[in-house]
Amino acid sequence: MEFVTAGESHGPCLTAIVSGVPAGLSISERQINSDLARRQSGYGRGGRQNIETDTVNVLSGVRFGKTLGSPITLQVVNRDWKNWTERMSVFGPAPDDLVREVTPRPGHADLVGVLKRNSDDCRDILERSSARETAARVAAAGIAREFLAELGVDVFSYVTRVGSVAMHEDDPMAQAATYRQLDIETSSMRCPDPDATLEMEGEVDDAKEAGESLGGQFRVVVTGLVPGLGDYSAGPRRLTSKLGAAMFAIPAIKGVEFGLGFEASRRVGSQVHDPITLGKDGYTRSSNNAGGLEGGMTSGQPLIITAAMKPIPTLTKPLNTINIDTLKPELASKERSDTCAVPAAAVVAESEVAFVLANAYMEMFGSSNMTDIKAAMDAYKQRLKTMSR
Ligand code: EPS
């Protein structure tokens, strides 16, 4: 399963084409729309989210609610486009009164992008490097999520840190899969701890007041996985490498940890590795410090990935930059932006992870149609049962 997205932040729409989807998978617009709404949520988002109510139009590849096995086209219309028709016109000369973006924002793709593309307008770059594009990814991954749901796999995320405020967890690897999704989704920061949520909101208020932006950390948790997805036999086939690449494909992600992550490097072996035991359903572990990955494969325990997001580069109290026209020092441009988008980034990360896992399932159990895939998975599960009896 592959996807490609297209579309500028203030163009007419965002589009995603998802290919390689098995036939016979039930798709619901409602489910994709609820993921799109979650991506728009979070305390600290900017004015754009008041303009947009992202919803998906499914334009190909689905008939009577089920996938055909042909490419699926998904469209998310940009409601803000109506305010940008002249500045973002597809054809015709640029308007005489066009104001070019000439003060690149440190931390964004603006400067390196204009150098690379030989452009005199940072807007040529920022329209695509904007995290608005992630709406298309979330829509695309809606297909992967439906696929995983049919195989009994659930993907969720929660925010653990915003700036200097961290949610307290005694043993994150033991707790991560136990949070109630209702508690996460009803928190304005998508954090299951109500006290931490309030503190995070305060942190956002202070940052906004100071013209600052904030990053943070979140975890993606996946339950219901079969053991053995991925491979140990070659580096690029390790699920860890694929998941790592997918996480770093999200704008602003600066660090990714699997399971205990960096903490594992500080402990002795016996305090890291998860003892193997036999439970009623076969082999299991008495802890999950590995975060569900061993030897580049799923262990059958919940997959737990933690990621760190840097603060958004657009500041209302901007940093110094150089005007690319005059080559004189100036303050960076003040694009409308978010103070904090960590809760949204966590939803995007769910999407990236879902795509990787959907592919890992198809690699193992086939890709033509859901009936055959489920039969292959059931046979595999049956064999695992007999191996632990
Ligand atoms: C975003 C839409 C954008 C930004 C944000 C993400 O809207 P606009 O640029 O029209 O205000 O709010 O983009 C960035 C954080 C960024 O760095 O580019 C969205 O829909 O997620």
Would you mind describing this structure in some detail?
The protein has 389 residues and is α+β, with helices and mostly antiparallel strands. Helix content is 32%, strand content 20%. The protein has eleven helices and 17 strands. The strands form six sheets. It has a five-stranded antiparallel beta sheet with strand order 8-7-9-15-10. The chain has a four-stranded antiparallel beta sheet with strand order 1-2-6-3, with helices on one face. Strands 4-5 form a two-stranded antiparallel ribbon. A hairpin with a 2-residue loop joins strand 7 (154-162) and strand 8 (165-166). Helix 5 crosses helix 10, helix 9 runs antiparallel to helix 10 and helix 10 (342-365) packs across helix 11 (370-387). The longest helix is centred in the C-terminal third of the chain and has 24 residues, at 342-365. The protein starts with a strand and ends with a helix. Ligand EPS binds at residues 9, 46, 48, 80, 130-132, 135, 312, 314, 335-338, 341.
